[in-house]
Amino acid sequence: MKIGILSSGGDCPGINATIRGVGKTAVTHYGMDVIGICDGFQGLLNREFITLDDKSLSGLLSLGGTILGTSREKPFKKSLDGDDTKPQLIIDNYNKLGLDCLVCIGGNGTQKTAYKVMQLGLNVIGIPKTIDNDVYGTDVTFGFHSAVDIATEAIDRLHSTASSHKRVMVIELMGHKAGWITLYAGMAGGADVILLPELGCDINKVNKAILNRAKKDKPYSIVAVGEGLELSGAGNKNSNRNRSSRLSKMIEDGTGLETRETILGYVQRGGSPSAFDRNLATSLGGHATELIAKGQFGRMVAVIDGKTTSVPLEKVSGKVKLVAPDHDLIVQGKRMGISFGV
Questions:
Q1: How many domains does the chain have?
Q2: DSSP letters along 220-243, please?
Q3: How distant is the alpha carbon of residue 163 from its chain centre?
Q4: Is 31 exposed, middle or buried (0-12, 13-18, 19+ CB in 10 A)?
Q5: Residues contacting 175, CB < 8 A, separation 6+
Q6: Range of 230's domain?
Q7: What is the largest CA-CA distance in the chain?
Q8: Which of 115, 256, 288, 323 is surrounded by the fewest CB atoms within 10 Å?
Q9: Which of 132, 134, 149, 277 is catalytic?
Q10: How far is CA 315 from CA 32, 140, 296, 310, 329, in A?
Q11: In sequence order, what are the beta bridge partners of 124?
């Protein structure tokens, strides 16, 4: 058999480890031929690829980014000029490359595109990737734990500055729609206020929680906020681009306490994957190749209840996994006096 691998969407710790997991299993165990499609679906449209063998797949386990490159090309999105030739071009290039299956590594958008490629009659396997941990159908995505580790360390470091200057420190973490990083890093880093996109925010309750801490001789507070949080009074999405600075001003005006903000940004997505994510990527990659060998296409590999398995792409496409209000960490956080702004 001959398989192609591509990575699409944002970069993420563990993509290279996944490419390695798929490729080495395919080459060493199943004797398959493997090629890497360059720059996501854009590379498939342009038929740009490299050959992946045992030698070229070595040394990838701890390497950040993706050796294949990535893009946010959406071949099924209608263009302004009415060009609808991309789906047929995918079919043509898939066949010209002699592929028996295409492995798509990516987040929600990639899995949705993979499902549409499957509907063209092509063999596809999806592998969930995102630091946001919001891909539906799996308990966890590789990249998430690495991002949480980085965000937690950042919060740890803010404690000393906040304590020294008796300030309120607001740290904005990634997650457009889902607050998984903010919840897990906020709890692990000992944040006093954790604001998630899923729950919304009542600034009066946030300020009250911070003032109550000050009355208890706790002169500083750490506020972890998800980048997707919509603040009340925002006229449009663009007004939320300065979310953390607006939130800081609202806290300072409401409490009279000096407040500063930090936007952690793309640091969360870069660098080497954690040991957990290396093992997760390896496991998911190997299982993807096993599905190919068994002819079980049109599926996304997943972790459910601690076991590596797979789910149909049709059950994943177009869905997002969000933090539930009754999540164990939220319940426990509230019991410990942490404010979630609601």
A1: 2
A2: -EEEEEETTPPPTT--SGGGGTTH
A3: 31
A4: exposed
A5: 132, 134, 181, 182, 197, 226, 227, 228
A6: 146-269
A7: 70
A8: 256
A9: 132
A10: 29, 16, 15, 11, 27
A11: 102
Same domain, residue pair 233 and 288: no
> What residues pair up with 169 in beta bridges, in sequence order?
222, 260
- Does residue 149 have an active-site annotation? no
Place of tokens 């500083």: 220
Q: Are 225 and 195 in contact (CB under 8 A)?
A: yes
Q: Which two tokens stand for residue 87?
A: 């789906």
Q: Where do the H-state alpha helices sit in 36-76?
A: 40-46
- The domain boundary, picked from 269, 303, 335, lies at 269
**What is the C-alpha separation between 114 and 192, in angstroms, rounded?**
40
DSSP alpha helices (H): ranges in the chain? 15-24, 40-46, 86-96, 108-119, 144-165, 180-188, 203-215, 243-255, 275-293, 328-335
Q: Which of 206, 239, 269 is the last residue of a domain?
A: 269
* Cα 10 from Cα 245, distance rounded (Å): 25
Confidence of residue 157 (pLDDT cuts 50, 70, 90): very high
Which of helix, strand or coil describes residue 139? coil
Q: Are residues 139 and 24 both part of a single domain?
A: yes
Q: For 25, which DSSP code?
A: I
pLDDT in tens, 47-93: 999 999 999 999 999 999 999 999 999 999 877 666 789 999 999 99
Instruction: State the CATH number of the domain containing residue 238.
Output: 3.40.50.460
Please check whether residues 177 and 135 belong to one and the same domain: no
Instruction: State residue 172 phi and psi, 5-degree precision.
Output: -95, 125
Q: How far apart are CA 319 and CA 109, in angstroms?
A: 10
Q: State whether 11 and 96 are in the same domain.
A: yes
Residue 295, domain CATH:
3.40.50.450
Q: Same structural domain for residues 102 and 157?
A: no
